[in-house]
Nicotianamine synthase
Amino acid sequence: MACENNLVVKQIMDLYSQISNLESLKPSKNVDTLFGQLVSTCLPTDTNIDVTKIHDEKVKDMRSHLIKLCGEAEGYLEQHFSTIIGSFEDNPLNHLHIFPYYNNYLKLSKLEFDLLAQHTSHVPTKIAFIGSGPMPLTSIVLAKFHLPNTTIHNFDIDSQANALASNLVSRDPDLSKRMIFHTTDVLNAKEGLDKYDVVFLAALVGMDKESKVKAIEHLEKHMAPGAVLMLRSAHGLRAFLYPIVDSCDLKGFEVLTIYHPSDDVVNSVVIARKLGGSSEARSSQIGRCVFMPCNCSKVHAIINSRGMKKSMIEEFSAIE
Ligand SMILES: C[S@@+](CC[C@H](N)C(=O)[O-])C[C@H]1O[C@@H](n2cnc3c(N)ncnc32)[C@H](O)[C@@H]1O
């Protein structure tokens, strides 16, 4: 059936035409309602929509523009709430729950931490988060709840995002010391990238395939062999909201796991290891781990077995 005749795709296209006609994407009742409807329309995972198999140019063009609009709106939303939360007299980190998607970040960061723990034998001392934003919630949640002795270096192209973000953590006795901010385009971050055990690449860094692959190639060039790259991708209808990262985009890396949540965590998580690391680093993996999509944030590591239902797992191999 032609994709644009698909009822859900028609609903997404209708929401897209309303969103693309908005005067501004800054938070307002109308903007919040439309994006709330868009997210709930794209959340179901029981559809057979595969955006990579859409040939209808109109739908493909709509998707690439919609991803950009979502990214722009997400930036404004973070700016808006970071300004409010940062204005509290006491420690702003006591008020993070005011951010509408705070619970999603609690679940996404727990999922990413669980995946990291499945594939590494030691606690990372230094992490880089590329594209941290005005509300660097991934870094804050990881530092506060999962990695109490890790320093997180946050990179963002936007100096205002970093100013808002550093204000959020400035009055926290612990995170003010463990959260460092750098203003730079990821493509200009060279020296020092080989000092990180783990590098996260935000979903909004590289909003189309070409720029995503460019960022990944840059990181592959400058990361340490054996270091872990955590990326965010999308699957099914959710790929109308965020770009997809495929295994074939990760040349120079060994893709360890691609995990597609089936709850309200929108992003899929991709974890890969830069080739050339020590055998010790590789042996710290527990085989070719694959994960079954599940609602709970506890990730079930299942050693790959050919008998697994293909549709629920993706097998990985090193990409030279
Ligand atoms: C809105 S944040 C989302 C991340 C989210 N705050 C988190 O904690 O997971 C994404 C950020 O990526 C930044 N960004 C986009 N392209 C970038 C690039 N090429 N280099 C560095 N930062 C970039 C944007 O300025 C934006 O602030």
